[in-house]
Design the sequence.
């Protein structure tokens, strides 16, 4: 190769080229800010920084999130850059440009160092080293996999340059033992701390352990140098010290049971539900071949040039063929290790080993394994490729071939990455939108909105409308594009906000239902209890309508107003006051003081609700004359029932119909021995873990849980028998006994009629079916225990019936797919299976009761007279159904109810303190079936002449079971309602499907399967089925009947005949029934203290209490967390109540001038102070924090000041101090070392 | 090397071409059959290791076989990128790279 002096020119030229690339992506003023975690920090880093300073999120109820701290140094750097560059567009392109050029330079330097280390000076000439290093850097930046991630850049994308940069620094450290590099690494890791936090754990753990292992082995065995152990130990200590500000609080959280981080990492559910099941779902779609070719995974269609990327693995293999050095081998080993982790599907043993790794706590972070390992894989691919290309170039004799190879590789990478270079790849449309671009030029009017919201005086939450599914805000830009991402109000205004029903947590569905039912009093009560003070409404039709027909509104559209016009009407019904308009699109409203509950208040009335926290909002659906309430739920054991002002008891439905319609939700247990062959060791170990699991069940529900567990185990064992038929069905013989054949055309009375001794003497289809029947019979007989309640017996039978149905369908499908059996054998097996299941179902004897009585059960905690209320359904018509309620056979008469009231009051009842009081609701439902008309799929009607009709020659098929047969529409259809279908039928032994289908959506005629069963009888039988309709009110409900089996013999003569009569479809309303008790005497005596509170920052409040002569409940409307603590204050900020800016409830609650003070002389005033009423800190109102404080807690004082502070924030300040000292120390050391080295060189 | 081992290798060396043909046919069947058994992978790899001993193949030969697998991958990819044999070939490439690296390391260190 010609002696061309590259020097630094070519690498610098490439670096500049990479730096310039992002400048082609945006026009001036444009920004790409949206996506899952947004990039709003580029737009306004100063305000974005505020949410990183505290461990409580601004969104929703304010949950703990200690990972926010990690971003502080990075955002400070962005603030510095923005102050210089001024424009957010410039900030974005400069940052991206630096990412690309630093990544290239780092890869270039790494390959140069590695190639020089080999010691064979003659092998790689200077030019070959330069070209190889440049090509490696170009490959790293421009290969298809890394360029895919530039359209939705997350903070994690910093790994593009961080990974190679850190590797280079560590490589230099190991090779030259120079602490400059290690200190440089520490300082860089501090600035980009999000990538070294627990939130950045997956890519961290997928890269650094591997890299450190590689460098240690490389240093020892390739470079043959000593490992600088002492320096490494010092560096590790310095790493933890410099990251103490973000790792400290997170590690404390990790080790604290109950903390969200602890639960995420260690809980059984997180391993199974969020780790392994996700991994198993994703794994089949990941291909090792695509990883080898350095191509992206999970693409709908590969680009036409994909096959050209074979050149890269070819270069790798040629490198191995011509290799003579250990360095390349070591790189190859690590490349293969990372390939395994990024692919998973390398041999079955490898896959099994991978799934076993999920038992390690924390490994579930790799559930999206390809997404977490691909950066590491991309880096090691570059590492190997850079060395391989040097080996190949040096092995090629002719210069022409060298030039050609380099040119081809460069052109391939350049052309395939051209859409990324010219900005096409990153100029995308918003997902599922009507071609709305993701680039936005911020609307100046909206900037005024943000500024205004920052100045709002009250410490209350904002409700943003229109709401979306996932907490996304959609905002039109000046340029016609739109922002779609996390709300700008949450991140840029320091105000807490609700943007989606999901933000209401477990109360989301209650809120949506209240809105859908136009229950405005309930909606207002919920907004009160959720501390909503302001409503921001974006009335722009651009962001809510045709442009976004699906995402992000598809779920909320079923409940919330579907158009902007209806939203305006909705807001008017909330009786709020408009305080500002910005242009014609943005409006801000305020909730009136009378309807507002401040962030901190003392409860005037205390209610008890007999539900768990997530369902404890029942009182909000009643009239609430007093807003200052505290709702205590069933979790709080240590309470005196007599102290409550009101008691609300929801009667729990114990309905056989509801249970028949639903699937049960319980924790399954895998007992040992489920697999056909379990090794003794595995069985022993499994038994140990399962015994441990069983002991976790509390005593009250242990019996039910064990029943459920036993049923699960037993039915799985029986299902295994059927599974073996699937794998061995073609090999197993079929024994056709003439005695048995005679019995196949009638209802069997015993299994002996179906299985003769000859047929089950050796392994055969007959034996396997007999085994299955025996196993299920054992279970059926066991569940029919005499001491079980009817309800428990029915639910167990229902569960078993579902298993029998599944088994029957599976056996039928297996028989149809047999390839080695004759039609005669298949017919025999089909009949034998049918009669076997007939026998089992007869033995099970599951039947829905014919009387329409819904039972309710309630535990009464105190003898008293209770008011009884029944929920009214605003959409219910008396034509469809009515019901009467009775207790102890006495009917509870309804008082005169107004039509628009949501609760109907019934007669009061005098109840003793007792468990399991039964209330009955007797239903009178009219048959919804008006005619006997059935239809085929193409709409042709079939009107029978008499009540009995036949379906002849209408064939369906089991593959497309939804296409055949006859259909009947069930009208009127209502969502979330229980229906019961009953009819008499006779099929003369033939099999028919009965399916209930839901046709969802206005435009999409998709049929969702709701429930199904097999109809088969010799004589007239009555069939009853219960099913629950879905949530979507736009659904059409269809009943379908079609033949089940494919005809195998005499198809011309044998007709599919089913006779049906007395068809009835009825609604089974199950209204809520609530018992309420007022304890008027308690609340009349209550004298509440006056409070004035001031927000210091989102994690600290000062509360001045006056005239606290009696016990009281202090409520803080933030997400419940044990980390919230009350402390006594020695005075603190002087709060003058006369200058308080807002007051409520006749001055009983006042708000001071709120601030957001991160650091002040008083930051540490709660250190070494005792907490107040910590043991009386409860979850109340379903989500908030409540403390029961009495004068004894304050040594009898009536006037005092409390500080409410979040513990994690207190800890954070201590860790921040440590990190700041370490950072300054490292910076000073680095400067000194550099100065010393430079000074030494000059000397 | 023990006499017994030498003797058995000597016998096998007579059939080494048969073994290599068995290996090649076995690989082709393994790639294009639907069995996807790890046992066949293991046996064929063991057969290849035996072949290395009998033929005194260097690591370069192992990598050249890997190269052949790559070429096969290329053509299969051209025909239909979604077919199952491609993943099987990728698994073979992975295994042979692993074997070749180990073999080359022994050559370099010795």
Sequence:
């Amino acid at each position: 190769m010609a002696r061309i002096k590259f020097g630094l020119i070519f690498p610098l030229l490439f670096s500049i080229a990479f730096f310039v690339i992002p400048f082609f992506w945006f026009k001036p003023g444009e920004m790409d800010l949206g996506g899952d975690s947004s990039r709003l920090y580029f737009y306004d880093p100063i305000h974005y920084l505020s949410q990183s300073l505290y461990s409580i999120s601004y969104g929703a109820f304010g949950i703990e999130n200690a990972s926010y701290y990690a971003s502080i140094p990075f955002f400070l750097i962005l603030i510095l850059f923005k102050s210089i560059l001024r424009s957010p567009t410039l900030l974005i392109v400069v940052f991206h440009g630096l990412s690309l050029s630093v990544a290239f330079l780092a890869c270039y330097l790494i390959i140069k160092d590695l190639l020089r280390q080999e010691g064979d000076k003659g092998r790689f000439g200077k030019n070959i080293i330069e070209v190889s290093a440049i090509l490696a850097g170009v490959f790293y930046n421009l290969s298809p996999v890394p360029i895919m991630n530039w359209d939705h850049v997350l903070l994690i994308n910093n790994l593009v340059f961080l990974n190679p940069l850190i590797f280079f620094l560590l490589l230099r450290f190991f090779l030259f033992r120079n602490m400059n590099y290690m200190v440089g690494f520490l300082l860089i890791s501090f600035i980009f701390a999000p990538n070294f936090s627990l939130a950045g754990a997956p890519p961290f753990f997928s890269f650094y352990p591997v890299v450190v292992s590689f460098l240690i082995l490389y240093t020892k065995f390739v470079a043959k140098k000593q490992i600088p152990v002492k320096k490494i130990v010092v560096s590790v200590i310095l790493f933890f010290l410099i990251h103490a500000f973000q790792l400290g609080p997170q590690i404390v959280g990790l080790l604290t049971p109950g903390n969200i981080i602890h639960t995420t990492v260690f809980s059984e559910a997180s391993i199974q539900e969020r780790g392994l099941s996700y991994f198993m779902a994703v794994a089949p779609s990941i291909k090792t071949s695509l990883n080898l070719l350095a191509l992206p995974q999970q693409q709908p269609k590969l680009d036409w040039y994909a096959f050209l990327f074979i050149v890269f693995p070819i270069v790798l293999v040629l490198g191995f063929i011509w290799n003579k050095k250990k360095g390349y081998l070591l790189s190859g080993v690590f490349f293969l290790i990372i390939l395994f982790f990024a692919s998973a599907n390398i041999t079955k043993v490898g896959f099994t080993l991978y799934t076993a790794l999920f038992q390690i706590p924390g490994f579930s972070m790799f559930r999206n394994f390809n997404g977490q390992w691909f950066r590491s894989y991309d880096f090691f691919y570059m590492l190997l490729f850079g060395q391989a290309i040097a080996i190949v170039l040096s092995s090629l004799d002719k210069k022409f071939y060298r030039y050609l190879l380099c040119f081809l590789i460069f052109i391939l990478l350049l052309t395939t990455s051209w859409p990324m270079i010219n900005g096409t790849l990153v100029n995308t449309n918003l997902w599922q939108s009507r071609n709305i671009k993701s680039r936005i030029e911020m609307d100046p009017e909206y900037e005024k909105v943000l500024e205004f919201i920052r100045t709002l005086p009250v410490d209350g939450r904002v409700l943003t409308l229109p709401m979306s599914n996932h907490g996304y805000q959609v905002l039109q830009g000046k340029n016609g594009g739109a922002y779609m991402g996390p709300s700008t109000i949450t991140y840029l205004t320091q105000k807490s906000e609700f943007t989606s029903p999901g933000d209401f947590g477990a109360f989301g569905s209650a809120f949506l239902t209240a809105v859908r039912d136009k229950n405005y009093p309930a909606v207002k009560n919920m907004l009160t209890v959720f501390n909503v003070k302001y409503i921001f409404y974006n009335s722009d039709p651009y962001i809510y309508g045709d442009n976004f027909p699906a995402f992000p509104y598809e779920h909320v559209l079923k409940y919330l107003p579907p158009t902007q016009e209806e939203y305006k009407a909705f807001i008017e019904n909330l009786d709020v006051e408009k305080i500002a308009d910005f242009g014609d699109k943005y409006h801000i409203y305020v909730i009136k003081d009378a309807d507002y509950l401040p962030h901190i208040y003392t409860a005037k009335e205390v209610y008890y609700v007999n539900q768990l926290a997530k369902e404890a909002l029942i009182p909000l659906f009643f009239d609430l004359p007093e807003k200052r309430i505290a709702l205590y739920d069933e979790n709080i054991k240590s309470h005196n029932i007599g102290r409550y002002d009101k008691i609300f008891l929801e009667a729990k439905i114990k309905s056989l119909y509801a249970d028949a319609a639903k699937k049960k939700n319980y924790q399954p247990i895998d007992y040992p021995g489920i697999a056909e062959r379990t090794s003794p060791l595995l069985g022993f170990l499994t038994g140990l873990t399962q015994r441990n699991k069983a002991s976790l069940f509390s005593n009250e529900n242990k019996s039910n849980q064990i029943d459920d567990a036993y049923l699960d185990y037993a039915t799985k064992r029986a299902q295994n028998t059927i599974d073996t038929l699937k794998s061995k069905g073609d090999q197993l013989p079929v024994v056709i006994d003439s005695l048995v054949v005679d019995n196949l055309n009638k209802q069997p009375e015993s299994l002996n009629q179906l299985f003769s001794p000859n047929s089950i003497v050796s392994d055969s289809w007959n034996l396997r079916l007999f085994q299955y029947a025996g196993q299920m019979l054992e279970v059926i007989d066991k569940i029919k225990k005499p001491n079980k309640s009817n309800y428990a017996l029915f639910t167990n039978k229902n569960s078993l019936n579902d298993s029998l149905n599944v088994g029957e369908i599976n056996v039928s499908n297996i028989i149809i797919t047999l390839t080695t059996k004759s039609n005669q054998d298949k017919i025999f097996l089909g009949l034998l299976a049918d009669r076997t299941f007939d026998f089992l179902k007869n033995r099970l004897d599951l039947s829905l009761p014919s009387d329409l009585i819904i039972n309710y059960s309630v535990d009464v905690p105190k003898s008293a007279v209770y008011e009884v209320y029944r929920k009214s359904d605003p959409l219910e018509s008396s034509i469809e159904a009515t019901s009467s309620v009775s207790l102890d056979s006495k009917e509870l008469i309804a008082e005169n109810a107004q039509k628009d009231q949501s609760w109907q009051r019934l007669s009061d009842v005098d109840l003793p303190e007792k468990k399991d009081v039964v209330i009955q609701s007797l239903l009178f439902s009219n048959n919804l079936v008006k005619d006997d008309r059935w239809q085929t799929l193409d709409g042709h009607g079939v009107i029978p002449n008499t009540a009995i009709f036949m379906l002849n020659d209408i064939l369906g098929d089991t593959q497309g079971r939804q296409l055949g047969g006859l259909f009947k529409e069930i009208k009127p259809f209502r969502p979330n309602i229980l229906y019961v279908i009953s009819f008499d039928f006779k099929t003369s032994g033939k099999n028919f499907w009965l399916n209930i289908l839901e046709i969802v959506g206005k435009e999409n005629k998709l049929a969702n399967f709701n429930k199904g069963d097999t109809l088969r009888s010799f004589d007239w039988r009555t069939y009853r089925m219960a099913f629950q309709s879905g949530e979507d009110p736009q659904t059409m409900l269809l009943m379908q009947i079609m033949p089940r089996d494919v005809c195998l013999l005499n198809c011309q003569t044998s007709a599919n005949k089913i006779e049906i009569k007395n068809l009835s479809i009825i609604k089974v309303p199950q209204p809520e029934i609530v018992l309420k008790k007022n304890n008027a005497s308690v609340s009349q005596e209550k004298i509440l203290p006056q409070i004035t509170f001031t927000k210091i920052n989102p994690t600290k409040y000062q509360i001045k209490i006056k005239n606290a002569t009696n016990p009281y409940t202090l409520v803080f409307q933030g997400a419940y967390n044990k980390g919230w603590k009350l402390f006594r204050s020695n005075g603190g900020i002087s709060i003058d109540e006369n200058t308080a800016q807002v007051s409520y409830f006749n001055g009983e609650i006042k708000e001071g001038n709120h601030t957001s003070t991160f650091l002040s002389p008083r930051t540490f005033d709660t250190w070494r102070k005792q907490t107040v009423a910590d043991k009386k800190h409860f979850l109340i109102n379903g989500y908030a924090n409540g403390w029961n404080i009495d004068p004894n807690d304050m040594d009898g004082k009536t006037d005092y000041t409390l500080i409410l502070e979040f513990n994690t924030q207190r800890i954070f300040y201590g860790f921040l101090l440590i990190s700041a000292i370490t950072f300054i120390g490292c910076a000073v050391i680095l400067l000194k070392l550099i100065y010393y080295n430079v000074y030494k060189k000059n000397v | 090397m023990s006499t017994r081992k030498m003797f058995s290798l000597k016998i096998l060396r007579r059939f080494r071409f048969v073994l290599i043909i068995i290996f090649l046919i076995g690989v082709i069947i393994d790639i294009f059959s639907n069995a996807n058994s790890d046992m066949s992978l293991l046996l064929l790899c063991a057969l290849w290791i035996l072949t290395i001993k009998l033929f005194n193949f260097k690591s370069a030969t192992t990598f050249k076989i890997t190269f052949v697998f790559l070429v096969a991958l290329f053509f299969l990819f051209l025909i239909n990128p979604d077919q199952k044999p491609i993943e099987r070939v990728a698994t073979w490439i992975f295994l042979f790279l692993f074997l070749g690296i180990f073999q080359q390391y022994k050559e370099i260190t010795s």
